[in-house]
Amino acid sequence: MRFLYYDRVLTIDKGRSITGVKTFPLSEEFLRKHFTRKALVPGVIFIESMAQLLGWLIIYSHDFRLSSIMSLIEGVKVPAALRPGFAAEISAEIISTSRRDSLGRAKVQVDGLEVASVDRFIFSHFHKVDQVALKARFSYYSGIPAESFDGRGPYGS
Length: 157
What we know:
- By secondary structure, the chain is an alpha+beta fold.
- It has a single domain (about 10-140), classed as Thiol Ester Dehydrase, Chain A.
- The chain is about 20% helix and about 40% strand.
- It has 2 helices and 6 strands.
- The protein has a 6-stranded antiparallel sheet with strand order 1-2-4-5-6-3, with helices on one face.
- A hairpin with a 3-residue loop joins strand 1 and strand 2.
- The protein is globular and about 45 Å long.
């Protein structure tokens, strides 16, 4: 089973930033039978949602010629008790990138208030990838049409 912790990509600026949205209903699989009295969204879910979007931004920014794996996080802030039933805006940015790795940061906002953040993500790069499959997967997971990757669509650069 694959878990996606964002619903769609709202904006993407190649080499710079990405913004997505995730709704957290009570029906989420990770909440089922986990809490006995009051369901809470686990902090690690916020970390994963930020990592997924930043990872896709890195892959997109390198024209799908690599895959990225999160290798370090620092400066993590997550909410202690946030109940399901809200929509979150997730934004991430690349601070620096090279052939070997990328450095970025991300945050999650609910109703304009920051509820979670990671000051430093480091992603290692892997270069033996199937570009066509990566583009198709990104298109499917993000909701961005694959033809937008050629630079002519609203997400091209």
